[in-house]
Amino acid sequence: MALLLFFLLSFGLAIFGLRQLRWAPTRGAVLIEGLVGQPRLINPLFADLNPVDQFLSGLIFRGLVKFDQKNQVLGDLAEKWDLSADGKIYTVTLKKDQKWENGIIIGSDDVVFTYKLTQDQAYSGPEKLTFRNVLIEKVNNWQIKFTLAEPFSPFLESLTLGILPKSQFLGKNTEQILKSPFNLKPQGSSRFKIETVENANGQIKSIVLKSKIGYIEKLKIIFYGSTQDALTALKLGEIDSLATTNPGDLSTLENLKNIKSYSTIINNSQYAVFFNLAKEGLTQNADFRRALALATPQLSNFGLVATGPYPQKSWAFDEQEQQVSFDLAEAKDKILSLNLPTLTQIALTVPSNDSLLKAATLIKNSWEKTGIKVLIKEVSSIEITDRIIPNHNFEILLFGQEFGVDPDLYIFWHSTQNKSPGLNLSSFANRRADKALEEGRKSLNQDTRIQSYKNLQISVNQDIPAIFLYQPKLFYLISKKIKNVKLNDFWSSDDRFSSFEEWYINKALKF
């Protein structure tokens, strides 16, 4: 009897163990993600205006510092950093155990090389302004010194810029680097590395990245021309996951029991309608801009309603300083008071994006109730970044802004930033706003900066160079076979992979 009980107990434990092993996470799985758009320059120095490039660069390259989920600064390639008493000198010490994919040690030469590229005359990225007057010096193999002409409070965030391997670009200038094949198959320093790139019909069809950590060994990204194409692929099971900001996409997946949807507000992004104040016509009329602001509906279905130039998660956001609220009756009265010609028409330029086009249509329908006509001009994302924005070739533009963790908005609203690489899309020029932005980036005292940025919000909301719409909501659609997915409140949509090493796919073991 005792022998029988022992046998039954042993058999039961064995079965229990097999069941545990059968569903244990195992390394070697592949996650296939759909992404709308095309990679052009997977290089942190040139990726600013292409979301696909930004996303891929963030997976492959690391900066000196990074920010955690609570927006606290942490060392990434850097072990530590020291700031001089006068706020002008940053001395950064690197970690010594880090290597590029080819095995070469990451050192101060790589850092100096990367940041000095931003000072080259041929470089036109947003970082050019930040490092224009910064002295960048190698102290030794592990230390770099940045000497600023004057204190610059957002400088630490500038050190999140991904570092490039100097050895890959020996003897090449900025223009040659821009055309280098490295930009489509770079060797970085992060947890992902590009394994293969598949081309078809002159475009990149897919990229396979190998993960250095975690259970899921490979991340395959397939590129699509539209969100609709990517949604179809998700329905057919050709991809496992897809990120979208269009709430309408969810309704097409209602009957798919194998797909789970996660959602969260994207805290570093905000969409607005920008008026071209440099263009002759109605956009120069403050009363006309105010009337359209009053006639703009709240697009709460698209995300968190915006009320000013700052996202609500920013420590500079002041909830008391808000732009005008929706009031269609008052908007009609203001339009009538302007005595505009019959059938007055304005053009609203919109990137070719399902979600933005839907938002533009809602805005158009509401504006037209005031008596004006609105023409929606759909333009490709490439044309927006290559021609529309650099040349300010629009009357009114629906576009998004992406913010850093630091609330310095100099590049978006200072009067000197109305030409590339500046991103003052409205050509907004206001002395009070300029002063607020200048004072805000010089002070190292947060209370002083908060007051400066309050003044900025007052100026922008009074003059209405833009109508702030919403902070988009990210919807992440992913197969239920992917386990332990965690999407907490994060700053950027790219942060959805911040816990990737904990994800796994259940795979039955063979016996």
Task: Write a concise keyword list for the protein shown above.
Dipeptide-binding Protein, domain 3, disordered N terminus, 15 helices, D-Maltodextrin-Binding Protein, domain 2, 3 domains, 20 strands, 511 residues, Dipeptide-binding Protein, domain 1, four-stranded antiparallel β-sheet, alpha+beta, 29% helix, twelve-stranded mixed β-sheet
Can you describe this structure?
- The protein is an alpha+beta fold and 511 residues long.
- α9 runs antiparallel to α10 (328-337).
- The protein has three domains: 29-37 and 182-266 and 473-505, Periplasmic binding protein-like II (D-Maltodextrin-Binding Protein, domain 2), CATH 3.40.190; 62-170, Alpha-Beta Complex (Dipeptide-binding Protein, domain 1), CATH 3.90.76; 269-471, Dipeptide-binding Protein, Domain 3 (Dipeptide-binding Protein, domain 3), CATH 3.10.105.
- Helices cover 29% and strands 24% of the residues.
- It contains 15 helices and 20 strands.
- The strands form four sheets. Strands 1, 8, 9, 10, 11, 12, 13, 14, 15, 16, 17 and 18 form a twelve-stranded mixed sheet that branches. Strands 4-5-7-6 form a four-stranded antiparallel sheet, covered by helices on one side.
- The longest helix has 21 residues, at 2-22.
